[in-house]
Amino acid sequence: MLTFFHRLWHPPSLARPRLSHEQVRALVAEAVRVADIHATLGALSLRRRDGQFTWIAKTATKGSGLQVTVEDATGTVGPVERWGMR
Q1: Of 36, 32, 38, nearest in space to 69 by CA
Q2: Is the predicted pLDDT of residue 55 greater than 90, yes or no?
Q3: Cα–Cα distance between 61 and 41 in angstroms, integer?
């Protein structure tokens, strides 16, 4: 109950990510090219946790695929990882 009123009276800040979709797509495309993988990471999502933004690019497949994470604050690109069943 207290959490409800706290969120009602103190809404979260409207912080915006530093990187644009185009910048993130360029970083992800470079990471995929360097990893020598022939796939298109089409699904791009933005997650916010503890005030930190993280971009996640995934292949648009079900069951398994590839994903790359990009830290918004630093522009650091994580490794190309496999997820799901192989």
Answers
A1: 32
A2: yes
A3: 10
Give domain 14-84's CATH number out of 3.10.450.40, 3.40.50.11480, 3.30.200.20, 3.40.50.720. 3.10.450.40
> b vs e for 8-42, b when ≥16 Cβ sit within 10 Å of the residue's Cβ?
eeeeeeeeeeebeeeebbebbeebbeeeeeeeebe
Which residue in 66, 42, 69 sits closest to 53, CA to CA?
69
State the Cα–Cα distance between residues 68 and 35, nearest whole angstrom: 11
Of 78, 83, 79, nearest to 65 by C-alpha is 83
pTM for the predicted model, two decimal places: 0.74
pLDDT over 80 (residue 45): yes
Residue 65 to residue 37: CA distance in whole angstroms: 12
Residue 23 has pLDDT above 80, yes or no: yes
